[in-house]
Design brief:
This protein is α+β, with helices and mostly antiparallel strands and about 525 residues long. Helix content is about 40%, strand content about 20%. The protein contains 19 helices and 19 strands. The protein starts with a helix and ends in a 13-residue tail after the last helix.
Length: about 525
């Protein structure tokens, strides 16, 4: 007798087509692997063409006892879309890639969840507009739906906050096969122009990591593209000086993008190919800032940076020459007491290629990479950084034994928050996700250290210790997935509300089991 679940998958393949229902073993292994780890084996991968098609399939799958897991661009490293049980089907939203409506007059854009941030940003640029937050550094692959589900920061975050701050509403397929809409569009006959219509149902689905449903569409705010852009960089001797400068800039709302590196991360970055040898990047700088900017980059390279100091790089935007000059002057005045200004080539490079981070998930010698982050108020940032340095000092024998090294990235999110993100690098083989995602010529250039299981275990142990220190220091997290504690830290009324909503939308507990559960 045929297994009813196998029969259901076969029926979906017959009706959707082979390309939209994937069961090939190699493809399943790829889809079941994220940047960091591999989950339980998948039964199939679905690539729906519409919310209606997906809703019907999800209802059938959960009725049959199959877990359903949403996946965006796949750039997760916290197990967000890794299966924790069998049978599980993964939903790849990459085929939901239409930009449905660009409404410049009413300042919103409607997109399907599988649209990448790079795709959206390029199309909106032709209209002279952008979203306030316009994507992570991995935005060539990261999708709008994924970023809203996981929580995401960087491009635009210094001034405009996270991905959630740009959202006006979402469309979600629930585990029961229903299609739910939030924001003003939830009311019959209303346009999706406003978020705050009654209780904020949109907020329930932002940062849920797919716990409550699969995002199929989103409406985001628009603003006019700023006419002027400029860049500043500084170096600092002590972390407290850096954190004080970042906090001052954030409170003043001056910087659109903020990226800071500790000395270790600066040295890691310097080991990579010299900026002036990257012809593609140089061309982007010239197109964005002109030939003079490109020639300055060639002449400066990286020699202006002291690898023993902390560095801070910011992008500033304005709507007139006078505004950008005022922002530059204000930023220089705020930071002058803490550090010294240096050549601003690094933020120029970052702005010329804002979505070019996919190759950075491997080190300069092909090492594996795992970031762990914490978000704290500015007043706690130095304390958290120092606590992490104390941990790294205690763990130095373990790190030296297994070839682990750490560099730390820092940024700000809106006016209130500092993000601190240590990145662990260790010698190890490349997994299926690396092989598919990192450029082949880049992987060939940096090589592969080969499998080192003991180093992998040591990195995992250190990763959990870093998260524990962050938790003890009162941090919160984006991209919670199945790694960071969330549910257990909620107060009892908060857990009760979350559990009640989950039970209403997913009575069998089959939508992304295990996510947000710790």
């Amino acid at each position: 007798m045929n297994n009813p679940i196998d029969t259901l998958i076969a029926h979906l393949r017959d009706s959707w087509g082979n390309a939209a229902v994937i069961t090939d073993a190699d493809e399943l292994a790829y889809y079941g692997t994220d940047v960091y780890a591999q989950g339980q084996p998948l039964l199939a991968v679905l690539r729906p063409a519409s919310a209606e098609q997906l809703a019907a399939a999800v209802g059938q799958l959960t009725d049959a006892g199959v877990a359903v897991i949403p996946r965006g661009g796949g750039m997760s490293y916290t197990g967000g879309y890794l299966a924790t049980r069998q049978p599980s089907v993964l939903v790849d939203t990459g085929s939901l890639d239409k930009i449905v409506e660009i409404n410049v007059e009413d300042a919103y854009v409607v997109v399907e969840a599988g649209v990448t941030w790079q795709q959206l940003h390029q199309v909106l640029a032709e209209k002279g507009v952008r979203t306030p937050y316009f994507g992570p550094m991995s935005g060539s692959h990261a999708t709008v739906g994924g970023a809203l589900s996981q929580g995401s920061v960087f491009n635009g975050s210094g001034r405009y906050g996270s991905s959630a701050d740009a959202a006006l509403g979402v469309q979600v397929v629930t585990a029961t096969g229903e299609i739910l809409t939030t924001g003003s569009a939830a009311a019959k006959g209303r346009a999706p122009f406003f978020r705050w219509y009654g209780p904020d149902l949109t907020g329930l689905f932002l940062g849920d990591c797919g716990l409550l449903g699969i995002k199929t569409r989103a409406t985001l705010r628009l603003l006019p593209r700023h006419a002027q852009i400029d860049y500043l960089s500084w170096q600092f001797e002590q972390p407290q000086q850096l954190m004080s400068a970042m906090g001052a800039l954030a409170r003043a709302g001056l910087a659109s993008e903020v990226a800071a590196f500790d000395p270790s991360l600066s040295q890691i970055r310097m080991k990579r190919a010299n900026l002036t040898q990257d012809v593609k990047t140089l061309g982007q700088v010239i197109r964005k800032g002109g030939l003079v900017q490109g020639l300055k980059l060639v002449s400066k390279g990286r020699d202006f940076l002291d690898p023993e100091l902390f560095t801070l790089h910011i992008t500033l935007e304005g709507d007139s020459k006078g505004e950008i000059e005022a922002r530059l002057a204000a930023a220089r005045k705020l930071v002058a007491a803490f550090g010294h200004e240096v050549e601003n080539s690094v933020p120029k490079i970052m702005a010329a290629n804002p979505f070019g981070a996919k190759n950075s998930m491997l080190g300069s010698g092909g090492e594996r990479w795992a970031p762990i982050h914490g978000v704290v108020p500015h007043s706690a940032s130095t304390r958290l950084f120092n606590a992490l340095q104390e941990l790294f000092a205690r763990e130095q024998p373990l790190m030296e034994k297994h070839g682990l090294f750490i560099g730390t990235l820092m940024s700000t999110v809106g006016a209130q928050a500092t993000l601190i993100e240590p990145c662990i690098y260790w010698p190890d083989s490349h997994n299926a996700f690396h092989v598919r995602t990192v450029d082949a010529d880049h992987r060939k250039r940096i090589g592969c250290p080969g499998e080192h299981l003991e180093a992998r275990a040591a990195a995992d142990e250190l990763k959990h210790k870093i998260a524990a220190v962050m938790r003890a220091q009162g941090s919160i997290n984006f991209q919670i997935g199945k790694f960071y504690p969330y549910r257990e830290d909620l107060n009892a009324p908060g857990r009760a509300v979350l559990d009640a909503i989950k039970a209403q939308l997913d009575p069998k507990g089959l939508m992304n089991p295990g996510v947000l559960s710790r």
